[in-house]
DNA sequence: CACGAAAGGTTGCTAATGCAACTACTTTTT
DNA sequence: AAAAAGTAGTTGCATTAGCAACCTTTCGTG
């Protein structure tokens, strides 16, 4: 149990990178009527084409209320439409509009540019390593929270 | 320019880890009257003992308004006091209370536990690597944002 | 089939955070 | 020394995000 003298933990840098990414991407996407928070949902739709809100929330591990509000903004800005689900009247299928599809390359390139900025001085190997480690941390975090929830409602 | 088919970028996992960390730490610190957002300022004070808000904002790369509000909450909860600066009447020195010092081991241990959870299945080497890579990403992010600001006000 | 549980969404509330604008002191320039 | 520029903090506003509570529809079991 060494005395951790300086505040240099993973979490400290993680939150810095996250905040700065948020700032940069918010500013960059602003001119397209997009907020940083909506982009991740677009990314899911670019891959899956049609999804219910519930499905998107699950894939991204994001709360369903956050999902609902992000989808609403995307709809307001003309990036997605919602059509009734064929068999379940509770849910809606969220679909991309032509506008969103036109913007796909642009959006991907903005995200990629930011990733490149973050890993500017990384070797190719390090670039691969960091994604892998972050993914494992995310997996561990998710497992822990799920476990806490499980305990709570036992 | 390979087609990045799945949304597996560093940023995606980074934001997941960040959000889950926020959730876990908020919940854990809640019973001490602390929010996740205030803890990083306490960590700075544990190391530097006395700081102006400006100094804390700089160390953490956090906006001064966020700093002001975090300090206010810490003051309201009895973790810090503010005393007038000896030579500059614009600023205040933020100092820890006995209550905060008593809680220091507890707070460090909660943060460390979460780090351990995130890196549960990491080798010792990987634990070191991930902090280093995150720190470099943070440095790159900060440099980029500073550069954008510089351009703006030219 | 009916009733209760579960699932998909929405609304109200709260926290952390950044930006713009403002006040109040300090330092620099002329 | 007076005016200009810069620094420390604060307040108002907006965004992302989660939680609790609620509504509506669907499903499962007696």
UniProtKB/TrEMBL annotation, chains A, B:
Q: Which region is the signal sequence?
A: none
User: What Pfam family is a match, any one?
Assistant: MarR
Tree of life domain: Bacteria
Q: Which UniProt keywords apply?
A: DNA-binding, Transcription, Transcription regulation
Which Gene3D superfamilies does the protein's record reference? Answer: Winged helix-like DNA-binding domain superfamily/Winged helix DNA-binding domain (1.10.10.10)
Recorded hits in SUPFAM superfamilies, A to Z, give: Winged helix' DNA-binding domain
List the InterPro entries hit by this protein, alphabetically: HTH_MarR-typ (IPR000835), Tscrpt_reg_MarR-type_CS (IPR023187), WH-like_DNA-bd_sf (IPR036388), WH_DNA-bd_sf (IPR036390)
Q: Which residues form the HTH marR-type domain?
A: 1-139
Official protein name in the record: MarR family transcriptional regulator
